[in-house]
Design brief:
two-stranded antiparallel ribbon; 132 residues; mainly alpha; globular; single chain
Amino acid sequence: MINLGADRIPHLREEDSLLSHSIRVAGLLYNYGRSMDEVKSGLFHSIYGTEFQRYKIHVPREEVQDVIGERSEHIVNLFCTLDDRPYTILYGKGLEEPDKTTLRWLEYCNIKDQDPEADILKEFELLLRVDG
């Protein structure tokens, strides 16, 4: 991530970076007891940019797969390319298991890190059976 410049990409707040945010998301997933594939997805969750994060990091999918594995990269790619991502994931539009649950946990931790008071978190917590 550092070699890709993620430590120099601002994220949400000027003093924050994509790398810091990604580490926190991965840490939340780990603390919730999610699989290592999911934790690795959290670390790279928006490496390709998203509908909300328009930065450009040019890294081939194969390189990311070599670092985090095929399953984790698959989740990262889905996360980065879904339209209306939070609601598509929340309501499972067009998603099947196990991707649906994995993406729900990833989005939940992503939002929780950025805005712990967001109303949508309550909906994710109900679905995931998380005690706030």
